[in-house]
Amino acid sequence: MLQDNNFRPLGYFYFYKILFMTKKYSYICLLLTILFTLSSFKNDEINLEGNWHFEIDRNDEGITQKWYNRNLKDVIKLPGSMAEFLKGDDITLKTKWTGSIYDSSFYFIPRLEKYRQPGNIHIPFWLTPAKHYVGAAWYQKEVDVPANWKGKRILLHLERAHIETRVWINDKEVGLQNSLVAPHVYDLSTFLLTGKQRISIRIDNRTTKINVGPDSHSITDHTQGNWNGIIGKIALESFSPVYIDNVQIYPDVKNRKARVKVTINNSATNEFDGKLSLFAKSYNTLKSHQTKEVFTKITVNNSNSKTIEVEVPFGKGMLTWDEFDPALYHLEVKLDAKGIKSEKKVQFGMREFKIKGNQFLINDIPVFLRGTVHNCEFPLTGYPATTVEAWDKIFKTIKSYGLNHVRFHSWCPPEAAFIAADKAGIYLQPEGPSWPNHGPKIGLGQPIDQFLYDETTRMAKEYGNYASFTMLSAGNEPAGKQVEYLNAFVDFWKAKDERRVYTGMSVGGSWPVVPNAEYQSRGGVRGLNWNKMPETESDFSTGIAPFKVPFVAHEIGQYCVFPNFEEIPKYKGVYRAKNFEMFKQDLEDHHMADQAKDFLNASGKLQVLCYKNEIEKMLRTPGYAGFQALGLQDFPGQGTALVGVLDAFFQEKGYTSAQEYKRFCNETVPLLKVPKFVYTNTEILKAEIALFHSGKTSLENAVISWTIKNEKGILLAEGNFDAKTFENGNGIFVGNLTFELNKIKQASKLNLEVKVNNTLFINDWDFWIYPVSNSEITSPIYYTTALDDKAKEVLQNGGKVFLNASGKVVKGKEVEMHFLPVFWNTSWFKMRPPHVTGMLIQDKSPAFGSFPTSFHSDLQWWEIQNRSQVMNLEDFPTDFRPLVQPIDTWFMNRRLALVFEAKVGKGKIIVSSADLAPDVVNKPAAKQLFISLQEYMNSDAFDPKENLSIEVLNDIFMNPSKEQFKTFTKDSPDELKPNSNQNKVK
């Protein structure tokens, strides 16, 4: 039986009457009629949600064949998308996706052939929808228009139709609209009669007329997908002939008032004379406030409109909106005259988001933007949420991680997001729905030029009153005549609407600077220079010095983590994680299925370490204005970019928590400045303590204290600094501390913790201390840098060999390992290095008895791991597990080793492709690991489980890997850059 949410009790009465009084065929026909004509309505609105007639128009024949004059053959439910109700085509290798594919190797690699077979298609680039369709489709519903609507203004409201709509009432076409950011609203006043009326809507999700760019997050299969349907409010709305059309509120916090622009439309044949009243009332705070009601007379000529400006005083009780106290008001506007009544209630906040020098100000208070990028990840529906409840949950999660800002990459969210962000106290940067690159370009007179002005104008009208709408970008990473176009765009908006601040587009560091932008959302001044020894003394001051406006780091992070295969069952909606399924099976095919969760957790710990260090570097940079991380959550497309500490559902993966993340990402963060993290016990730990503070008020009389403890939690030293008041700022000096290390006699990991007393603001860092000791080779170990004849002889005779294979590896030579993990993912960048995303370490092995380590890469491993060769164990026994195992990109899943042990012949061997040697200089961690491995080899515990033949061992140094990555495409994400040959203006 068809289901309809709007089937009211009266409908059930008729349903049962029909059931008992008609034959089966008549019952079905009558029931369908009831389902498609009954709609819930109140005096001024008819809800059109529920079942609609539906038909796919594959051949674009619906208009010429006048489908609006006949009943469509199929049924679908709205709100929703075609894919959601399994309308469209099955996924094949020939599916014409909306989105760029830069790595075509999937279509050719022999080991992936099974994923290219019908019935077993696994697309690795993004999530796989249940069905796919790009083209025209028709939606149709009959509605009873009540008699008392005669003479009224009637609007058809379609929230989030995707993309182009054309509407017919009975046999008359009403018009066409094309917007990715705002409701499609049609005036049906002259088309709808009372009684039964047929509404037909043709929706076309092709991008041929206005191409915003195939990778734009407003349309691309990389994120929400290019769906066909309507996902928000669908209703007929009736109004009096004279009505309030638009209300825009412009807060003046300094003078405790607001300017309100009210537009009145008069569609009647007579001139209108009436009275307008306005008052504002707070509604979400313990302390309440209400303005006095303001009245003004207004006259509007017939068939005309008029905009007037009214000043609403707020007085001393005014409440302001910010991230700390997001106080909101409802402005109630009423239009009253004989026979005419019109009302509008508008949510807003009294706030001013401005710029002073290189700082953002919220109500004159400096604010640092700690942001994430939202890419329209909605894996259950494939389209953005339109309910406030859904966005409440998202923003609550984002704020729990210490963030206060969200950038919407090349898309604008529905109204519900702005309502929820207002409540949560989050600063939003929606964008024009375009990534005009690799296809369309700006400034060349293409349709995208005017479309971005039209779309951002619609955004300002629909969402401009929301306090959270503080920033606006035209889109993402363009090509074309950028500077000229974007300078004009920024100038247009600065003159038009002062309620927010404007940049050109959000761009990487290689894009040209747009001089007129009020702030820069830009790459180039971000990241970790961990080709050098990790430290926390450097900052980004030199990089941001040329910019005299606020600099917000564009898409920081992008540190990959291994897939979480336990996430796969979550995909119960319109999408399936076929990419995850393929990666999981491929890992199993490479004999490592049992290590999947360990890979996730080990790579996750490194990922968090990287985010911590990059964020802290910005927090200690004076004048840095903020960052937009990519991202807090995973990105499901572009090859599958697992860059978040949360999954695409905004849920934790298990290796960190919001509480842990907030230690280094919060409104107040203790900071540390040190030259390194690895010491010998002949040195002195010298550190500078600093503070980042971005609060609503200064931190008054704050006492900052510190402790140093060992791994057992034993306190080794402590101290505190004199009470001091800290204003908002980055990298504020607190004081210095020293700690002599000569009492540390054993290799140790120490923890330095700094906190602001009597607050929740606390942060910590680990250090490694190694005693100065002799690392000479001890008998009976044979140390060698090659698998030479003597090594083979020692093994054959039952001896022990330590093989330092650094620089000698052939099998695995193609795998490049840095300390930093994979950036974004290796598919999107066609196997650009690094290829490794951290290491899994058998930390419980006695091999590490004198080398404190966890199961994952940590900062003491930098000098050992960074740029070291790895060994490919493709011919080793399938259950062979090394002591130190680099985690390969999940697109290859090669079984790798940095250090392994084995029995060979009668002897035993440890092989390291890291440079571990007795004569290593200025690498205390590498020296200590070598000592620890020697001690292990000289102990009874040295008893490797696996046996290797000398031939398998020798093969590492003789023959290349059997499985090599090969790319089959000439295209590259580098061609997204504005100076590439593809995007040069011709």
TrEMBL record:
Residue ranges occupied by any Glycoside hydrolase family 2 immunoglobulin-like beta-sandwich domain in the UniProt entry: 242-351
Region (Disordered): 967-986
InterPro entries found in the cross-reference section: Bact_Beta-galactosidase, Beta-gal/glucu_dom_sf, Galactose-bd-like_sf, GH, Glyco_hydro_2_cat, Glyco_hydro_2_N, Ig-like_fold, Ig-like_GH2
Domain Glycoside hydrolase family 2 catalytic positions: 354-503
Enzyme class of the recorded protein, top EC level: hydrolase
Enzyme Commission code: 3.2.1.23
Sequence ranges of Basic and acidic residues compositional bias: 967-977
Origin superkingdom: Bacteria
Reactions catalysed: Hydrolysis of terminal non-reducing beta-D-galactose residues in beta-D-galactosides
UniProt keyword annotations, A-Z: Glycosidase, Hydrolase
Domain Glycosyl hydrolases family 2 sugar binding: 47-236
Pfam family, one: Glyco_hydro_2_N
Similarity field: Belongs to the glycosyl hydrolase 2 family.
Protein name: beta-galactosidase
Organism: Flavobacterium limi
